[in-house]
Amino acid sequence: MLRSSVVRTAAAPDGPTLDSLLHHYVDAGESLSCEPVAEGLLNHGYVLVTTHGRFFLKHHLDGDRTGIARQHRATRRLAALGLPVAPPLARADGRTVTVLDGRCYALHPWIEGEHLGGAALSHGQSRHLGALLGLVHTALEQVMAAGSAPRRTPCPQPSAEPARTFEMIDELLAMARGARPRTSFDELAEHRLRERRTLLALHAHRRPADPVAAATGWVHGDFHPLNVLYRGAEPAAIVDWDRLSVQPRAEEAVRAAAIFFVRPGGTLDLAKVAAYAGAYRSARGADAGELAAAVHRVWWERLNDFWMLTWRYRLGDLRTDPQFPAASALAVWWTREYEAVRDAFTG
Q: Is the pLDDT of residue 272 over 90?
């Protein structure tokens, strides 16, 4: 039987907590209201209104102070280079993280804007988006090489092993078939799992090699429409740097495009993908070979990935259910249109 949803609650910090927090800032004012914004999967965010204005308050759930400090240094340095980011505000003592009752908080300026998916972006905006991500990767290479942010040894994830994927498919199939009450989602999940098992059997020999170290570097780690705020036609801020890490750069570019430019039916707008990818290659200086390898690895990743079904059936968490129809269809369509997708990214 399907377990009850485990969606986290995001109750705002209480008055004493907010008073203690704001006490550390010179010009933040006194709290008037604090309300949750749309809840993220990694952290909790709140719109905090004070006597001196509006702010974004972030509660970092993992409490990794070293990682949070790394994110903050990176965004402050990126802002100094002119990139659209929203660095945290510094406290009176210069720190950017406040720990209260073991919880890590950061205060950011409030950025007015909206989230735009690929359907809302023109071809020109698609080019601009690709160029922006290329600049982010180039700038991260510069700012993360600075003395206080030492570069870590890249450890790219190995590509998925089909044998393990087949085991996961069997487990999820049993859960989908046994779900009560049975819904149209369960029927779709069962269909996609059986379909994917057939595709993997046909394409198991195409498992990609692991990426070369030369193609790795610091990346945002979660570049998608909900983490880019637009003001009018221009990006106003790239937010949520919690997954800042060393990874294959071109793979982030491909993953982002597969989220921005996926259509409801599970196809990609290849004309916009081509505009985006061409601008990314130019801004980053990436060649067609690097993008082709990234397309192959991300395609394989999608073919072997079932995280949305894992959330639903193992965790009872339904938040990603609306994304599943398009995402699951995309893996099938991408396999059928493999060459066309590769050509859109490589020019």
A: yes
pLDDT in tens, 165-203: 999 999 999 999 999 999 999 999 999 999 999 999 999
Domain with 38 in it: what CATH number?
Answer: 3.30.200.20
Quick check: is 178 in a domain?
Answer: no
Here the tokens at position 176 are: 């989908």
Mean pLDDT (whole number) for 276-282: 98
- Domain assignment present for residue 194? The answer is no
Beta strands at 103-109 and 53-60: parallel, antiparallel or unpaired: antiparallel
Q: pLDDT (tens digit, 9 = 90+) per residue, 76-126?
A: 999 999 999 999 999 999 999 999 999 999 999 999 999 999 999 999 999
Cα–Cα distance for residue pair 299/341, rounded to 1 Å: 10
* C-alpha to C-alpha distance for 258 and 7, rounded to whole angstroms: 26
Cis, bond preceding 13 (omega within 30 deg of 0): no
Residues 210 and 340 in one domain: yes
At residue 182, what are phi and psi to the nearest 5 degrees? -75, 135
Region of 232 (left: φ > 0; alpha: ψ -120 to 50; beta: rest) is left
Listed residue (237, 207, 242) closest to 222, CA to CA: 242
Percent of the chain residues topping a pLDDT of 70: 91
The dihedral through the CA atoms of 20, 25, 26, 29 has a sign that is: negative
193 in any annotated domain: no
Residues 104, 122 share a domain: no
Domain count for the chain, please give it. 2
In a domain, 57, yes or no: yes
